């Protein structure tokens, strides 16, 4: 074994392994890629070394003590058997007031690197937030720290149905990307923990208190200008482009940027905008993308729609989508209109963009049109980058108050009087049921390209499509948040498996 630099340890604590004749204490050191256990705090010959991997499954043993619930031990796999480590009794008593800080901190450090079992032991359900064909989203309370989280439950059977294991690969890609983005909680939905049951994967993330940008755009139709105020639009676009800088500098392409996938972490705080739903995201560095033709009609870059399998696109596809969002904010209309999804897709594919808009000197100005033109350039090589866009003079008019507001983010949870979480959250269900469809045959033969349409969402407030007529192309919409219903866990005491999986009580409409 190579030299162990204990100065690189992220966390260390003392635990106990119980044996028939005599208990034995171990020093536990947590590193970036593993944790080790040895007889001394600096041993170069540790007894156990557990490398982090999603295939490594840990289970937590809880104990109720007075008014608190604590973690008294955890079980880890080792050489085809399972070992249990208990907290040092003296240390445990000292840390009760901090929610059993030792094991909780240990659990937090491992949360994105390994898989846990027994989600029903640690989370009490509150509401079903959303539902797709492959996944459901719930809000639930962590019994250790009493905080509220969102839980995305993804059915394994659905992932396994996809061709050549692409569904499972997409799930792993989503987890990998969420792990990369975890340091940027002010910009992206943050992954906390990963659980696995017999039939389901669970991704535990931060909850979001606010609405989606789509909902805010809809509400703004009641304002005098039927749009959000211009200063608000600048703040929103500045925050969005700041997030895209972080995303693209980590070589990540979102591939489904739209108002539905932009949410506010805090109610009535436009500076708390975060980017959600990484079910279609990919790493730009891959030789071959999963589901190369994907996205939402009306926001897809032309190089995606007209892709041939000899070429690849880049992070610039997100820039085009951000231009579509800016157009919607400035005009109150979708850049690619249509009465049906096919109409929108066809218009998006042809990508005819008319920026000859009448000046109103508030929303439509030389500066706003210039920025739009650079974001929506059909030539991706000439399209502006997110970092370049932030330097555009369009943002020079963000006042000092707005700039300061960008650094304000939510830190607390609020409950209604009946104890239910007063929460509105975007459904960010996974999108692994992906098929390709051809646009109607009247399109020119040289335009016959297909776009992969995720067949999982029931997207609420897709206001750009007013008529949901029958169409040869399947495209599901999200169920509105008003359809939220209560649900329950079965057998909350069960420590493992899916006997404590989430069961919804909603009625089929």
From TrEMBL:
Cellular component, GO, one term: cytoplasm
Keyword ATP-binding tagged: yes
A single GO BP: mitotic DNA damage checkpoint signaling
PROSITE patterns cross-referenced by the UniProt entry: PROTEIN_KINASE_ATP (PS00107), PROTEIN_KINASE_DOM (PS50011), PROTEIN_KINASE_ST (PS00108)
This protein's UniProt keywords: ATP-binding, Nucleotide-binding
Sites where the protein binds ATP: 152
Keyword Nucleotide-binding carried by entry: yes
Top-level taxon: Eukaryota
SUPFAM superfamilies: Protein kinase-like (PK-like)
Any Pfam family matching the protein: Pkinase
SMART domains: S_TKc
Gene Ontology MF annotations: ATP binding; protein serine/threonine kinase activity
Name this polypeptide is given: Protein kinase domain-containing protein
């Amino acid at each position: 074994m190579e030299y162990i630099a204990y100065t690189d340890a992220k966390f260390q604590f003392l635990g106990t392994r119980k044996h028939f004749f005599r208990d034995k204490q171990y020093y536990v050191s947590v590193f970036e890629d593993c944790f080790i256990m040895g007889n001394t705090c600096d041993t170069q010959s540790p007894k156990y070394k557990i490398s982090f991997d999603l295939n490594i499954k840990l289970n937590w043993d809880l104990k109720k003590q007075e008014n608190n619930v604590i973690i008294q031990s955890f079980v880890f796999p080792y050489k085809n058997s399972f070992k249990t480590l208990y907290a040092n009794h003296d240390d445990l008593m000292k840390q009760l007031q901090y929610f059993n800080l030792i094991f909780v901190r240990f659990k937090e450090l491992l949360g994105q690197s390994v898989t846990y079992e027994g989600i029903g032991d640690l989370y009490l359900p509150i509401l079903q937030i959303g539902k797709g064909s492959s996944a459901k989203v719930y809000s639930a309370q962590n019994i250790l720290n009493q905080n509220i989280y969102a839980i995305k439950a993804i059915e394994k059977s659905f992932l396994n149905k996809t061709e050549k294991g692409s569904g499972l690969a997409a799930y792993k890609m989503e987890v990998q990307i969420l792990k990369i983005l975890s340091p940027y909680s002010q910009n992206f939905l943050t992954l906390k923990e990963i659980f696995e049951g017999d039939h389901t994967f669970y991704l535990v993330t931060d909850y979001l208190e606010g609405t989606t940008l789509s909902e805010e755009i809809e509400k703004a139709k009641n304002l005098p200008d039927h749009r959000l105020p211009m200063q608000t639009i600048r703040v929103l676009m500045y925050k969005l482009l700041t997030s895209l800088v972080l995303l693209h500098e980590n070589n990540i392409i979102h591939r489904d940027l739209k108002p539905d996938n932009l949410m506010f972490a805090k109610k009535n705080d436009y500076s708390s905008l975060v980017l959600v739903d990484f079910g279609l995201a990919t790493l730009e560095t891959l030789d071959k993308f999963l589901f190369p033709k994907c996205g939402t009609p009306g926001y897809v870059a032309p190089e995606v729609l007209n892709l041939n399998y000899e070429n690849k696109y880049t992070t610039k596809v997100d820039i085009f989508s951000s231009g579509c969002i800016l157009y919607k904010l400035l005009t109150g209309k979708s850049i690619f209109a249509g009465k049906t999804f096919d109409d929108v897709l066809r218009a998006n594919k042809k990508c005819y963009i008319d920026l000859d808009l009448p000046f109103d000197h508030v929303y439509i100005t030389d500066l706003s049109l210039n920025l739009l033109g650079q974001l929506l350039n059909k030539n991706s090589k000439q399209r502006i980058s997110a970092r370049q866009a932030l330097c555009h003079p369009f943002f020079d008019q963000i006042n000092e108050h707005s700039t300061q507001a960008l650094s304000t983010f939510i830190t607390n949870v609020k409950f209604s009087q009946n104890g239910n979480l007063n929460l509105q959250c975007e459904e960010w269900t996974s999108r692994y049921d992906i098929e390709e469809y051809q646009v109607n045959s009247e399109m020119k033969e040289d335009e016959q390209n297909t776009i992969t349409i995720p067949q999982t969402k029931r997207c609420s407030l897709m206001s750009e499509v007013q008529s949901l007529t029958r169409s040869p192309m399947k495209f599901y919409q999200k169920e509105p948040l008003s359809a939220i219903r209560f649900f329950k866990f079965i057998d909350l005491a069960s420590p493992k498996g899916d006997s404590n999986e989430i069961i919804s009580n909603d009625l089929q409409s």
